[in-house]
Structures are given as structure tokens and as C-alpha cells.
Fold each of these.
Amino acid sequence: MQDNKLHLQDLEKINRYNFRALCDALSRPGSTQNLKKAFHSYSIACASVLLYAEVSYINLTNEDFWALHSICNAKQENLEHADYIFTNNLDSNILSNAKRGSFKDPEFSATIIFCFDDNCMQNEYRLEGAGIDGSIIQKYPLQEELMQIFLHNNQHFPIGNEIYFLNTQNGEIKALSRTTKMEVI
């Protein structure tokens, strides 16, 4: 019993650390934060922070969320209705079908967590917007076509989506908020 209690205390400590990293990444697009692993996985560590009984998700990654699902009891949902979308393959279908909220209820939008590895091609973008001092140049594993869809989805603030980019090999995480403006370099 003592071992389980210690393990849950460790998970709580990891979740607090990772929560701050996720908040920092989203509030400062272009910055890179680092997650700590939970259950031997950066993807599950991210999900452990975001998922709880009142939200829904879809897992389109290769990770097994079973243990985490048992702990947090979040509802599994389809792509069009999920609050959180975990994916190894960010494509136009996901960006086009993720819920974007409404002017009355912008919080009913999906957050996308793109889990990628070091082999994923990255493109340079100039970023501007909230949390960025002037403009910065940063690389993201996002094709230009998908960047255009992201910008289109976010053109009528507060409607839109956020995307986290999680490197599953080293735990580095970056984000793009719905207020971020981008252009290809």
C-alpha cells in the first residue's frame, strides 16, 4: 500500500511540473519547454496533465492510454467531439474536423497534441502575437498546407484551436495558440 501511495505522490509532483511546462509553452509560442516522463512516456505524461473525468479525448497515437484512462476516467470520443486529440500524424482531416468552439463558448474547442519524433521534418516560421515580443523565427513540424488550415481555423478569435508539438524522444514541447500569426520563412 505504501508503494502505491508513493507512486501517486510522484505522479502528482510530475503532473504539477508538466502543467507549468504546458502553460509556459502555450503562453509563449515559440518557446521550448521540457516534460518529465510519466509511465515511461512523454505522451502519457502530457495526457496525465490534461485528462480528467469532465473532458473527452481521442488517442490516435501508438501509445496505450489504458492505465491513464483508468486513473483519470476521461471519456473516449470521436475526432469531431473530442476535447483533446493526441496524434502521431497531424493532417488536414484532423485540423479540419477538430471542434473550434463558438463565439459564445470558445472553450468548447479541441486542443491538438501532435506527438512526433526527431525524424519529423520541421519548417521555419515567423511567429507574431500574444506572448511573443515582436516576432520570432522558430521551427515546427508543420507543413505549410497545415499552417494555412490552422490560420484559417483561428481567423475569428476567440474561435479556434491550440496545437502542442511534443517530441516523444526527448520531451521537448512547443505550442501554437489560437492568437498566433505565422508566415513561412
Amino acid sequence: MATKKRILFFCILLSLLCPLYAEGIENTFKQRIEWSSSEGAYQYKLEVAAEDSENSNFYTTENNFYELHLLAGKYKYRVYVYDFLGQESARSEWSHFIVNKASVPQIKNLPSAIKLPANSTYLVLELDIEDVAAAALAELINTKDSSATRGALVVAHPKNADKDFDREGSEVLSAKEVVFHEIEPGTYSLRITNPSGLSATSAVIEIQEAEPPMEVVQIDEVPEEYYSAIVPPKEEQKEEEPKEPPVEEEPEPIKEEPKVIAEAEPVQPVVKEEPKEEPKKEPPKEEPKNEEKKYLELNFLAGGGIIWSPYSGNIIKDHSDSIILPSLDINMAWLPFRFGENQKLGFELNGIGTIMGKNATLYTEDLYLALMQLSILYRHRIFLDNLYISLKLGGGVAFFYQYVEYLSYYNNRGQTQKTTFLLPSATVGTSMYWLPAEHIALEVGVSFSHVFNKTIRMGLLNPYICLGLRF
């Protein structure tokens, strides 16, 4: 019984700590310290201390190495050698080393659509990337064939290094641009991978083909052929000059001619203004609105599973002829809070129902169980754009309806007994959440619910699969 209590406590503690794994991700990496073996050494003692600290930690080993889990910072160490009598035979000098910080990259403010420059395959993505190293790898992943195109990450290098660890080597820098060459139009996802192996993938972005540049024709002089349709040729004017004296009305056509020419001059700005009007007809850049904010993050799922109790002397064994029971599972979730591109937090109301039946010599019994529980729900996107891992922790009530029918003369012959009661419960669970289509959701998971009762132990393990809608 004590062992199973420890297992339950461990599951609850694990569900509380999992959402905070990003802050302590550096603890998952090991640091291996090695030294040269010493002849006649029976045992080694490793002393490790922070660079500016007087407190040391000691580790004993028979090998010439030791693996540690240290936070980012500057450290020093030395090794003591002991012989088989337990006496110290040698001691090394202090050696210094740096543990760099490992982080999951954070991709922010990435546009959902971008156009290539005209007549070029050179692309500059302007965005905000945090928690990266100078040697981080940037790639555009084609959603059709999964091919990867490498780019150059423009990292902002700090002027002064942090006193606790090496910022240049740690994954704590930021970037504003990613430069790519030879990019073709299509749909891609941006993936940033740190030297530690931790990576992040963005939502899908559309790279559009550039529109052909508008040709602006500027005419400095209007061809003479254009004026010929309005003004008589100059040669004809020269021939008419000698005829002007005998005719009194000759000055009138001479005055009219420059007026016609002056009226033709405004034609030039009309020709220049035509190409300027066309760019105004371009559609606004507000067309791509395929953002995730349009979803309310409401989920309605229903499905089924099985229920089994890991306790010995449990409620299922006492009230059912079978140790494994079918279950009906209904989940309703709402996730209004977002942290970056990959994390969501909200609430889930879930219901689990099952029926236990038992046929004894003197009676038959049916026990109906319905669990209604409200949980805090945390989801984190992994691997693919539409695949999440979920963690749940909460509590609620368990409703029981017992129907007993006596079959013999023993104790209440021919009568039935009906009993209902409510008990508090606590639950913890995890699941994989997948969006195969825009509004279709599939969830596969397992939950453990403990019903608090002094007379009988009630612990229910429920693997399930549900299908539903996402809005």
C-alpha cells in the first residue's frame, strides 16, 4: 500500500513539474569530467565549486571520470587520489571550466506570407528569435517534400559577456533576420536548431512569387508624327509664308497655330501619369489572414476506452465480475492563454462513465459510476505543426448509483435496494492531441483518478481515444 501511494505521489508531482521543463532544460544535459589515472589509486574524490563560491560539493568514484548535472555558470574542480588504505596520496590543482546554457529557441513575429524580390531568389525574413546561439542552424522546410534549405542567422552579439556564463557560447542570444539563397515560391516552415540539439518549428508561411516590375515610360520629346496630325508640317508653313502679304487674313492662321501647339503640350504629363496609376490598384497586403487567432480554441471530443484499477482489493473487483471495464469519455476544453507559438494553457471539463455488474448466489448488483472533473490543461506543440502533448491536473466528484436485487430468502427476499452517493476525486493525465484537419481533433491519452473513500480503495486508470471538433 505504501509503495502505491508513492507511485501516485510521483505521478502528481511529475504532472506539476512538466510544464516548467523549458526553464530547467539545461539540467537534462550531463557534464563529464575526466582526469588521468594514477598508479596505485584505489579511489578518487572530485571536488566541484562555483568560480566565486567557497562552498564545494564532493563526489566519490573508482573511475577516472564523473558525470554531473550543473546549471549554466563558471566552475572549478580538483581531484583527490586515495590509496587502498584510505589515505590521500595526491591532489591536483584547480581546473576551471564553463557550462553554457541550453535553451529552446523562441520564434516570434513571423509573417504568414512574404513576397520574393523581383527577379531574385534571395530572401530576408524579418522576425524576432530569442534563446539561440551564434552557431544555431536556420532552415526552411518545404511542406510538400520536406526538403530543407539552410540560411544564415543574423545574431546580435552582446558587447559584454555575462558574469555567470559565456553568452557567446550559450543559447541566450537573439536575432532579427534570417537570410536565404535560392528560395522558390511555396509553403514552408522555419526551423531553428541550437547546437545543443534543442529546436523549434514555426507555423507555415507562404512565400509568393514577386510581381513583374512596372515599366514607367518617360517621354522627353513628343515625336513630330504626333504633331503632324494636329499642326501642318513646317515645310508647308514655309511655303505659305510668301503668300502672306497679298492676303489680309494671313495673321489669323499664324496666331492660331501656336495655340494648337500649346494645347498639345499637356499631353506629355498624361503619358507619364499612366504607369503611376497602376501600382495603386495593387491589392493591400492585408489579404493573408491565416492566423491561429481566428480560432476560439474550444474543443468538444467524445470517445471511449477502458477502466482498470491498479489497487488490490479495489472497487472493481468487489462490485464487478470483470477486472477491465469499458468506458465512455467526453472532453470539453478551452485554452485562452498562449505562451509563444507552441504553448497553450486552459481548462478541461471531462466526464467518464462506466457500469459494473456482479452476479452472486444470493443477489445481483449493478453499480453505475460517473466521474465529472475539472482540470488545468497545458499543451505544447512538438515535432509537427498540428501535434501537441497535453498534461492535465485537477479534481471533481464521483457519482455512484447502486442497484441490488436479492434472489433468495436470505435477507430481504424479493426486494431491491437503491443507493446513491457522491465522493470527491482527484485526477492526473497526459495525452497526444492531433489536428488532422482544420476543425477535426483526435486525442489519445491516459488518466488516473483517485476517489477518496475510507472504506474501499478507489483508483481508476483510464486509457482512452476521442474524436471531435475544434473551433
Amino acid sequence: MTLAQQIQTLQGRGLMIADTNKAEQALDAISYFRLADYWYHLEADHHTHQFLPNSHFEEVLACYFFDKDLKALLFNCQIENHQALCPNLWSVLVYGFNESRKSKAFPD
């Protein structure tokens, strides 16, 4: 399907699109099927893919970018926690490993 056909399909199913140029750019950059995850909750019927009344493409994009930003934030937090915890965790593991090996290497 072309971008214009994708927009026609979405509009035909009841999704309101205020700016078709912006919608084309988003569909081109993100893809129809990737965005489908973000309009799923706006569908009144998941078999026919008809949208609930007053469903807007801009809401779909807002959900997509919120999710993208949230994932980036969580990833950055994970990296910071890893950098803070890893040296300490590594020290504990090495110490514990060495202690366990001492008792096995030199039995009484």
C-alpha cells in the first residue's frame, strides 16, 4: 500500500487525521505496522479495525513518542544503575568466589 492508501484506509476506518502530510511523514518514518500497536486501544472492533468515535492520528503519535521516550529514560536509568552497582557487585562476587575456593583448595 502506498502512504496515501494507508491514510485512506485509516480514515475509512474512522481515524481522524488533521494533517495528512504529517501523517504521511510519520507513516514513512515509523511504518504503518509499527504504529498499529499504538492505535490498537483506539479500535472499537479488532476484527474490522474500525476506530472508536473521535479517535485521532495525533493521539497515536503522542502514544508512540511517549513510549519511545519512556523506553529511552528506562534504558538510561538501567545503564546508570549498572555502572554504579557493577564494580561493587563484582567485588562481592570475586571475594565470595575466592573464599569458597580457599576452603576447597586447602582442606583441614
Amino acid sequence: MYEWNYFYGAIMLNSDYQGFLDFIQHKMKDKGYHYFHPSIFSQAIQEYPYYYDNILISFGRTAKWFLDDERELKEFIREFEDILSHLDFQSIQIKVGGVYNDFSFFWLNKKRLLSEPGSGYEITMKYVHENKIRLYESEDFYFGLGEINMSTGWCEKSSDPDDLASFDRQYPDFKYPVEQINR
């Protein structure tokens, strides 16, 4: 019973919903991901009143001894970022739950945040600094520990020092970005 874990999350897509559907329905399964399967992703509709401007995609699954060590965390991030490289998204929140720890991870689309007028880069970074959010940066993404507002991408809650200490204990040598996979 204590070995069961789960993750769930949401992706705020930008405008290319058809690109998301094409990748999920026709290309994703061939990638052979360990943690992600097309069937765990919801497939919304572009029909009013069920969405407005952006589409929110949810996903989740259970697992056994999920992300038990740093190698598994890195593989999870590698797979997920490979998926993200095929999507036009704004922000993503993932909750990971287990027997001993619960973590909240988020991703922001770096290129979109830096290049779009009114994208809120300055406000986002202000919240990151004020709330002591652990934020990492790669060429394409901002990856962080904590909770974000899915509509704005802002980190409006302070990081819990106990959660950060738990993360550091479980993954003491964590470095970001993780090496990418070639699929």
C-alpha cells in the first residue's frame, strides 16, 4: 500500500490545439515514454462555452514507487520536456504525490514569456523573487518547484521551506537542465 504514488497536472495550451491533438493521437505512442501515455491526457473541444482563448488539458495517473530517486526524476523531466517540445503551451502545473513527500512542479514557456508583449515576464520574476520560488532555466523552459496560477503563470504562493528541504533530501544532487533524450 505504501508504495503507491500518483501524478496529475494541467497544461494551459496557447493557440495550437490541433498540433496538440496531432502529437497526442498520432506521434506520442511511438516515442515509447515510460511515464506518459496518450490516454492519460484529456482531449478538450474548441467549442464555446467550454473554453475561452486557451484550452486547459488535464492529465494524471498512478504508479508504483514513482520518482523514488534522482535518476527517475530526471527521466520523468526528460520525457515530459520532450512532450513539451511538441506543444504550444503557456504554463504547466504538476502535482506529484507519494508516501513520504508531495511536490509541485511547474513549467513556463520561456520563449513565449520573453517574446510576447504583455506576457508578464517582469511580474513573473518579481513573484519568483518575493516568494522565494526555486526556479531553474533551460534554453526553452523555466522549471520550478511550487504552485503557479495557471492563467497568469505567476507564483503567488511562497515556497514551503519543509517541501524544499524534502526535495533536497530525496534528490540531493539534482541539477537542471537535465540531459535531453533523442526520440
